[in-house]
Amino acid sequence: MSDRNDGHEELRKAVRAFLKNASPSSEVRRLMATAEGYDPEVWRRLADELGLVGLIVPERFGGAGAGAAELAVVMAEMGRTLLCSPYLSSAVLAPAVLLESGDEAACAALLPGIADGSALATLAVAEDNADIRDFDAIRTTARADGDRHLLHGTKERVSDGCTAGLLLTVARTDKGLSLFAAEPEGAEREPLPVLDPTRKLARVGFDGTPARLIGAEGAAAAVLGRALDLGTVALAAEQTGGAERCLELSVEYAKTREQFGRPIGAFQAIKHKCAELLHEVESAKAAAQDAARLWSDPTTGEQGLAASVAGAYCSEAYVHAAAETIQIHGGIGFTWEHDAHLYLRRARSSALLLGSTSWHLERVAEDIGLVPTA
After folding, report:
1. pTM of the predicted model, to two decimals?
2. Class assignment of domain 222-367?
3. Where is each Acyl-CoA dehydrogenase/oxidase N-terminal domain found (predicted)?
């Protein structure tokens, strides 16, 4: 094994050991019932003790300067335990969109606080019932007002939108889609009912909310696309961690639960289910790892394609693994007391979070020439 892989394994062990104590099932259930949805002390330790909050933030902005491969390792471990935290929004999407903007002044001003965990940030994109990748559906506007802009519009399904202290928002100007940084004090925030209570979503309304332009005006579409692709790579890794844990729960139960005097794992139907899950989980891990690897090599030109392959496959694999886990557990799997349904809720919610499976599959089809591009 290479030194790099050795380093990844050490990182995996450290994160798993930390989350074993910081995110047991009992704590997940406690936090998902709170309005904030996360433990500030755990968040502080993730930042200070492990340096994970600033993982992908360059060292010059106070981060660790790690890449997508390391991020995938961390996200997979968080997915295994259903960690309740604003990690995807504040430690992945927000830094990604700021770095992609190329705005050095904004990065210098905002990234250090994000990296050390003192500032929570999120990305506000989706509107109405449209997919987050449907940029044509964005109707929020930004009107110049001196050295600032005023935002008007409503964003839906904003991850951690009620707790973030910085709202990185995409809005239209006369020059096209642009990225803005808005303070939450000037916005109306409302928590949304969610299928997955371990990940909080909000509706954020802007009515003349002051904001400052990030990057070049009219350049947000490409910036946003790249940031969402990195988010998809990270989310795919999280999905593989959750799917792998579902497989483990299923195998453990099949070995210990007895019917007709023998473990249910001895029955062919259960064997087939577990074997199929193993194949899907390993394939999902390969897709996620390949996407993370390609992200570090922009010369291939396949980063977007790999992100969508992982996004589509890992979403489907996780949903299937979670659903089969409930089936293998039988009656107990359907109860609130068992964790299987928490994984299914996370799986179904995640499958729509950063682009639906159909969106990713259509993109893959276009990239490989199965259908003409628009």
Report:
1. 0.94
2. mainly alpha
3. 6-117
